[in-house]
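pinging the channel bc i need a second pair of eyes. not urgent but kinda urgent?? the chain im working w is below, pasted from the shared doc
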Amino acid sequence: MSFLAPLFFAGLAAIVIPILVHLIQRERKTIVAFPSLMFIRRIPYQSVERRRIHNWLLLLMRVAAMALLVGAFTRPFFRVDPVRAAAALSGAREVVILLDRSASMGYGDHWARAQAEARKVAGTIGAADKATLVLFGTGAEEAVRATGDAGRLGAAIDAATVSSDATRYAPALRLAQSLLARSALPRKEIVLITDFQKSGWERQEEISLPEGAVLTPVSVAALETTNGLFASGRVVRTADGGRELRVWRVYLRAAPPRG
């Protein structure tokens, strides 16, 4: 243990104050009335009792309070071994990979980019680490649970496919919260890989990650990509070689930018 302000230890001299209080405390005297003091000689009065400490517990409490006050001002701290500190920072990790496989991920190269990002995370998993792959759309499911085998993770990522589900973030984050809460590993991480559809949040969700957990968002959406909304549609009748055809025409418009 070391101290940032060791000079404050000089304040320990204040411990003598409660000791003096106990030694010079006034004793109660009984007054006896005499009719005349002419035959009484005045002599110096000395009391042995007044120099004795009667309440040792109270004295020790006062002395301890003074010592603790002085100790607080010295600002003690413990030196940490840099090697141990580095080991703690590089300790085993509990990693949850949340891979969005909703229908919007099928646009362009979103899914290929998402798989590539997931494989990057899988490549960082060490022998002491544990990683869980969670595929989510409307719901969330574990594809691989708590493994340190990067090859197994990579195979599961390659085998995953895009679904027809909508995007919902809350079920995936709740599952990740549950997995990390049960983990005893010192470092906890969540990697969220998605195109961040605004519609993924239906309402305000109360999700609290464990203390110290780190959430890393990874977006695979192209910056120039915008959502499209169904504006209207109608059936148009046309003739083709004497045959009557009915064509369904759909009109789309750009959606507001995603938040």
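so The chain has a mean pLDDT of 78. and The chain has three domains: 2-79, 92-219, 227-259. — does that match what u expected or am i reading it wrong
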